[in-house]
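As the next step, I selected for study a record pairing a protein sequence with its backbone structure tokens, which the following lines show:
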Amino acid sequence: MNSLDILNVDVIKLLNRNNLLLPLIKSELLKDTLNKIKLNSEERNQLKKTIITQNKIKNETEYQDWISKQELTEVELFDKLSEPIRINNYCKLEFGHIVERKFLERKDDLEEVTYSLIRVKDQFLANELFLRVNEKEASFGDIASEFSLGPEKDTKGIVGPISLTKSHPAVTEVLKGSKIGAVNNPIFVNDVWLILRLESFNKSILNEDMELKMSHELFNDWLNEEANKELNKLTQKIGSVSSI
């Protein structure tokens, strides 16, 4: 990136020492990347309409007056305001073709569950509480608030929404095989007895929103990798000067 060529060794050292060098590199790399992405006429017109609506501008004269007060040219202002649009466009253009692969790799992480949990130490108590809840002698939430040992005590037993893979493998296995609303028999995990009830299961689907999310993840991975490469080059420059 040519924009970083103005940095001398002392400035590089100062920025690096204050953990500002990497953010600067990422910012400049992002600008360089987005310079390749231009708004089409429809996007520009829509952006202008948004500005006019949000600022209650009545006519073209008022619009030009408003632009002049921003201390930016219209082009500079549009570049600034259109950054999210251009990032989206770049993500789709450069990473759209590998989104499906990324989605399949992350599918389990993206699936979310909400479940109710009661956690107790004693097996006999666990069995008793299971029967009380299963037979609807008491509500799951009330039992959890009274008896559960973990933080779910304060949420009436509710856990989530949470990624399915972030639960204990044994819990994940039970939830995967559960019907929504059914109370499962107590299971023993990490020295405690758990009673679980699946409340909701949000399956991950590769729709338009998910495609955009996956392309953003790929873009951020690429941006971080390229920024770290540039960081290594600059820090090597410090080392080479110090060794002379």
In short: The longest strand covers residues 192-202. The mean pLDDT is 91. Residues 208-242 form the longest helix (35 residues).
